[in-house]
Amino acid sequence: MDLRKLEWLKYQVRKTDFREFWWDSKLLKQCAEFKDPGLTIELLRRHRGLSNKTADSAHVIRQTIKATDGPWLETLWDCIREEKYEINIYRNINNPNYLPWDAAFILGEIGGKLAMESLLLEMVPEQSHLYPLTTRILQHSIYRYEIIEEHSEPMVQIIDTETGQIKEIPAKEIPDIYERRLLRIDQENEYFHGFSFSVIAEIQKRVAMTIDGRYFDAPKGQIIKKLNNLPRETHPLKKDHLISVTPENSDGLQTGNVSQGKDGRFSIDVDDNSDTFSIIMAMGIIFFDELTLERKQIISQWAGIPYPQEASQLAKVFSIAFLHFMKSIQASNLPSNHPMVKASKTLLANHEPPDLPIPSTEEIQLIIKELFFESQ
After folding, report:
1. Which one, of 185, 176, 157, 192, lies nearest residue 59 by Cα?
2. Omega into 170 within 30° of 0, i.e. cis?
3. Alpha-carbon dihedral angle through residues 317, 323, 326, 328, given to the nearest 10 degrees
4. Collapsed DSSP state (helix, strand, coil) of residue 267
5. DSSP 8-state secondary structure symbol assigned to residue 212
6. What contacts 212, CB < 8 A, 6 or more positions away?
7. 13 vs 152: CA distance, rounded Å
8. Residue 34, C-beta contacts closer than 8 angstroms, at least 6 positions apart
9. Which is more confident, 342 or 138?
10. Most confident of the ranges 176-180, 231-235, 277-281, 361-365
11. How far apart are alpha carbons 155 and 146 in whole angstroms?
12. How far apart are CA 209 and CA 202, in angstroms?
């Protein structure tokens, strides 16, 4: 990494005229070549200073942040997590130097499925002081999915030279603008994919049972209904050996259930003993199902558990192996922006994972590493 160029880019982002933030900006193209939290923060500051968040100038900054921060937008999440007091969030809503509000806006505007999945680890009682921001991300994301579903014809505003009035016309009547508008739609919708049933079900439970209604702009029942309307992942192949596992919580108690329907989709049931530990274990079970058949067979041979005949037992052992791997790398700097990795490492600082029935191997650790960590 060219550190001198990186520092020069940060300086240019801070000092350049706002008119530089436009399509084909040479400065933004150079910024997009770097993945750096500091550069992401500088871009976030400039985004905060723009009064019109729907303008193309704001859009191109958001797209550059996608490049400098990666698809999980972890620097934006870190910016939000730095706030420790709910009152400060409200006090600084109009403060041009307060970045968490714009971090939340960008996560809602372009974060899509990845931002919604991250909310599972952020909308928890321990982070209740951040509910003004995390619920904003949730509602903004739902709104964006609704706009995508409407799929209306792009429009542009023009000034009638005879009357001086502003009117809207279809963008396709102006070819250059129409092509740019289609490009913008593709870019800002990049991460808005379908969800697993389990993710939607868990978010609905948080909305219904954990978060006070005062944080939402609409009754909680409406939010839950809107979540039901979000697109789902499809699993056209039915499975003969379905997974059903009871995770364990941080006290070692069996709690809730992770079950797979005949269409391949998962649901997560929680009870009074469920906690973040059991949810991470449940997600590990679901990640096992997403492995290739070759990797599942490797795990089957290592654990001595036949697959697919004992898929449920094997999935649970894999999730425990994941937790052991997280525990073993507590002090390492393996690169990963996956929210499950950060949550697991934080959780395991004070908790021990359940015992593995058989010691892990380098091959198993490599499978986990390739699933959750960036290649070096």
Report:
1. 185
2. no
3. -70
4. strand
5. -
6. 131
7. 34
8. 1, 6, 9, 68
9. 138
10. 361-365
11. 17
12. 10
Crossing angle between the packed helical segments 56-69 and 74-81, to the nearest 10 degrees: 100
Of 321, 325, 311, the C-alpha closest to 357 is: 321
Determine if residue 351 is left, alpha or beta; phi over 0 gives left, psi from -120 to 50 gives alpha, anything else beta.
beta
Q: Which of 169-173, 202-206, 232-236 has the lowest mean pLDDT?
A: 232-236
- Local structure of 361: helix, strand or coil: coil
3-state secondary structure of 55: coil
Three-state DSSP class for 244?
Answer: strand
Cα 190–chain centre separation: 13
Type of residue at 344? S
Instruction: For residue range 16-28, list pLDDT tens digits in order.
Output: 998 899 999 999 9
pLDDT digits (tens, 9 = 90+) for 234-255: 654 445 567 888 888 888 888 8
**159 CB-contact burial (10 Å; exposed 0-12 / middle 13-18 / buried 19+):** exposed
Q: Which residues contact 338 (CB under 8 A, 6 or more apart)?
A: 72, 372, 373
